[in-house]
Amino acid sequence: MPGAFARLCPVFDRLAARNPHHEVHLLPLLAPPGEIACDVGANRGLFTYWLLRNGSRVVAFEPNPHMVRVLERRFPDHGRGERLTIVPAALGDTQGSATLHIPLGFSPLAALDGGLAEQQGVPLERVQVPLHRLDDCVEGNVAFLKLDAEGYELKILAGALEMLARAQPTILVEAEERHRAGAVASLRHLLEPMGYRGFFRDGAAIAPIAAFDPARHQARDALNAEGSRVLPGRTYVNNFIFAARPQVIAGLEAMAA
Questions:
Q1: Of 148, 170, 185, 248, which sits 20 to 30 A from 51 (CA to CA)?
Q2: Residue 235, H or E segment
Q3: Looking at residue 122, what is its pLDDT?
């Protein structure tokens, strides 16, 4: 199954490239070529693939053992050079281990938050996975940090405070009110005092995060019944950019003008 899924992944890569509003098109601005990028919650490797294409040195973190095997099939040369390292672990604000909740069967979906996983209404497999702090995992300054952690993003950032203060990486983070009430506001509360400014893609436009309205931008009826896909003709915003580097802020502001 991992091999078959890995063979399908290039289809998803091409679909992202064909969507002019997908965040992969912002990577040349957000992730400077030659610098370190962390793909946290790498899943099937969509952002890992495009970051490598962009010239980044990538550290991909993925706790779901099913998806780790997919990544290893997709990128068989990982660990043999400086371009890609795959770390089969979860990230948080402490070192140790954690329980990962995975829908039974081969599934790319998983969550450390058991309550969130149970909302899917399917039987779950529970596995123990290593848990690390990002501050303890990566040597050198990280330029870009992509987070997709199903409601666990604040704990991951709490384990990366030294990195954030030192390197000020640009952050692309998924945050949804349905997963955690006040998700976007809590990110602003953490990051803005550190010099970060928030943005999001609103259709074709880049908007300042102050314009984000949960009732309008994350309406539940914009998604299908499973909550896994945006309905045709609807808009649903769940990715947010936080930038502290002046050249990135200037680039985003130019796109918002």
A1: 185
A2: none
A3: 72
- Residue 158 CB-density burial (10 A; 0-12 exposed, 13-18 middle, 19+ buried): middle
CATH number of 2-210+238-256: 3.40.50.150
Task: Please state the pTM of the whole predicted model.
Answer: 0.93
Q: Where are the domains of the chain?
A: 2-210+238-256
Predicted local confidence at residue 113, as pLDDT: 72
Residue 1: closest CA among 88, 77, 107, 89: 107
Virtual CA dihedral for 45, 47, 50, 52, nearest 10 degrees? -70
Q: Summarize pLDDT for 33-63 with one digit per residue, the tens.
A: 999 999 999 999 999 999 999 999 999 999 9
169: Cβ contacts below 8 Å, ≥ 6 apart: 38, 141, 142, 143, 144, 145, 163
For residue 190, what are the CA distances in angstroms to 9, 77, 102, 165, 241? 34, 37, 29, 12, 14
